[in-house]
Amino acid sequence: MKHIKALAWWATLVPGLALLLTLPAEALEKGTLTIDNGEQAYRLNVEIARTTKERAFGLMERDRLAADAGMLFVYQQLQPPSTGFWMHRTRIPLDVAFIGAEGTIRAIDTMVPCGNDVNARCPTYQAGEPFQYALEVNAGFFEAHGVKVGDQVTLP
């Protein structure tokens, strides 16, 4: 009888945990930003991750990201060049642009899904430059739109 009660308890807990894991993405602030590559400006609809919890969760558990969408990670202070991003529990390949406080793209990298359940085994993609914002978009977006280091981002 104890085993049946334990199974019933887990059956109610596990869907609740799954719901909690998807809530941050739904609850995030939304905005629009513009990337200007000097020849053309591109508008993106972004979810804004401001808190430590929101930034840590990022785009985990997503199966897709719209072509004109992304996630903007906002930090209260300049982050050192050794700060990086990982792809733990992230299912889609992403590009990341590390952006300075003035809105200039300082570094760009392409990140691939980790495929490992242990976050310590996932590679870290370090910025290599100080940054205050990071923008994640679908992999290939920056190259396809001619976006490069030095281009300007107008933040929401």
TrEMBL record:
Stretch forming the signal peptide: none
Gene3D superfamilies per record: Protein of unknown function DUF192
Pfam family, one: DUF192
PANTHER family registered for this protein in UniProt: UPF0127 PROTEIN MJ1496 (PTHR37953:SF1)
Name of this protein: DUF192 domain-containing protein
Species name: Modicisalibacter luteus
